[in-house]
Design a protein that fits this description.
With 221 residues, the chain is of the alpha/beta class. Helix content is 41%, strand content 20%. The chain has nine helices and ten strands.
């Protein structure tokens, strides 16, 4: 399983990608697998030490096995909390996929498993000609979709799944994130998504699967 990567995407911003990614890293650590988080690009930074840091990247680093720096976990960081390609343009930069690929290779050489977390949703633009999903699909990574159960999530989840498959990527599974107020419609949403998404529901509400179950999912068993 050395060098394996799973990519965590969501139906939208704040779908719960970081919560799931951190819990996945913690489950792997409990199973004795030294995994590392990876936030290729992040927009939205706060003061941290002598510089700036993204809260999601800090959470991933804290849950990762020792041996990686914050810069390695999050190679591209932009201060304004706006779409990454717009934040990069404001900084006079352009997000180059080769930079992200090289940064991932460093972690993949050092850790048996990398949990990569996206920014925004699957079709978040990286620059004027490339979407995040295009770059991820080119890496050949299995994708885990986080669905925040709320009004509109059925459309968002099915469109995202369709876009993932359209790019030749593998949708390995999905996580149902239950916000407050999902209420009586929750089971109906789960039933509809279970019937239509195709891949298995890994877990509901957070990420509480046993480490053995997580490893089995990642190994395709």
């Amino acid at each position: 399983m050395r060098g394996q990567t799973v990519f965590v995407t969501g139906t939208d911003t704040d779908a719960g990608k970081t919560v799931v990614s951190v819990a996945l890293l913690q489950a792997l650590a409990a199973a004795g697998v030294p995994a590392c988080g990876f936030k290729p690009v992040a927009s939205g930074a706060d003061p941290h030490g002598a510089g700036l840091a993204n809260a999601d990247a800090l959470a991933l680093l804290a849950a990762s096995a020792p041996g990686a720096s914050l810069q390695e976990v999050n190679p591209l960081l932009f201060e304004p909390a706006i779409a990454p390609h717009l934040a990069a343009a404001r900084a006079g930069q352009r997000i180059e996929p080769a930079v992200l690929t090289a940064a991932h290779a460093v972690l993949a050489e050092r850790f048996p498993l990398v949990v990569a977390e996206g920014a925004g949703g699957w079709l978040t633009p990286l620059n004027d000609s490339l979407l995040l999903g295009d770059w991820v699909a080119a890496q050949g990574w299995p994708v885990l979709l986080v669905v925040r159960l709320k009004l509109g999530c059925l459309n968002h989840a099915l469109l995202t799944a369709e876009a993932i498959r359209a790019r030749g990527a593998t949708l390995a599974g999905w996580v149902a994130n239950h916000p407050e107020g999902a209420g009586a419609e929750r089971q109906g949403m789960l039933d509809t998504l279970s019937a239509r998404l195709g891949p298995p529901l890994w877990v509901q509400q957070g990420f509480e699967a046993a480490p053995s179950a997580v490893l089995a999912r990642l190994s395709g068993r």
